[in-house]
Amino acid sequence: MWYKMFLNPTVLKILGVLIIVVSSIVYVKYTQNQINALTQDNELLQLGIEEQHRVIDSLQNDIQLIIESRDKLSELLIKSNNEITELKEKLYRENQGKQSLEQLAIKKPQLVENIVNKATKDVFDCFESLIDNQECN
């Protein structure tokens, strides 16, 4: 009895259309929710990408500063090594056919003492100049 009404082709067509409409509405709502969620995810990812670009730029600047510092330190090392070599040549003057400072100090202590005292005074004067924010001569 009452189920015979559902066997009517017109009712079946209406039910079919109704099912299709309801399914379409559910699908559209689901799709809109997915689009909204993906849009929010995309915005978060864009913010993350922008932050990563800022960090990368900062790191590249830091790397450039480190490279410049390394180059300056390399130059200072080369200068220091040259000064060490020069001072060793002055101290051990046998390479130039002269007596070493050690031998000279034994033979003429007053001469070497005067030279060392003058150099020490020059170093202290240089320290004082540096303390007073002046250049050392």
User: What proportion of the residues form beta strands (DSSP E)?
Assistant: under 5%
According to DSSP, the number of beta strands is 0
How many domains? The number is 2
The secondary structure category is mainly alpha
Q: Give the helix proportion (percent range).
A: over 70%
Main beta sheet, described?
A: none
Order of helices and strands: HHH
Distance from first to last alpha carbon: 118 Å
- The number of distinct helices, counting runs of at least 4 residues, comes to 3
Gyration radius over CA: 44 Å
What oligomerization state is this entry in? single chain
SSE arrangement:
Elements: H1 9-91, H2 101-107, H3 109-131
Helix pairs in contact: 2-3
Features:
82% helix, 137 residues
Task: Describe the protein's architecture and organization.
There is one protein chain. Helices cover about 80% and strands about 0% of the residues. The chain contains 3 helices and no strands. It has helices at about 10-90, 100-105, 110-130. Helix 2 packs across helix 3.
Question: In brief, what are we looking at here?
Answer:
This protein has 137 residues and is an all-alpha fold. It contains three helices and no strands.
